[in-house]
Amino acid sequence: MEALTAHILKLETALLDNQVRNDPNRFGPFLDESFFEFGKSGGCFSKADCISAGSLGSVRLNIEQFRLQTIGEHAVLALYRTVDKETGRAANRSSIWKSDGITWKMLFHQGTPVPDK
């Protein structure tokens, strides 16, 4: 499980890289065809929405408290917090990743803002 956790963390980290986020040819392969997201903004986005927008939007985030839970034979739930490097604002994040036996793809993602104290 340790190797899988490191691998999924690497995939999540890649999706926070602005060079990846701003190029559909780079972020598209990470997303399952049925991917959808409930964004931190409150919006709901499909893979097609993201590809047609041409970007996932630029971010400057650090990942904290990353952990993984198995939810099926070929599926895991990634749970973590991000902290914005500029504003210090945090968001709780969850992603479902599934494997076809060769490649892991993100099926679902949700970002929920953490209220300021």
From TrEMBL:
Listed InterPro entries: DUF4440, NTF2-like_dom_sf
Protein name from the UniProt record: DUF4440 domain-containing protein
Transmembrane portions of the chain: none
Organism annotation: Bhargavaea cecembensis DSE10
Boundaries of every DUF4440 domain copy: 8-106
Lineage: superkingdom: Bacteria
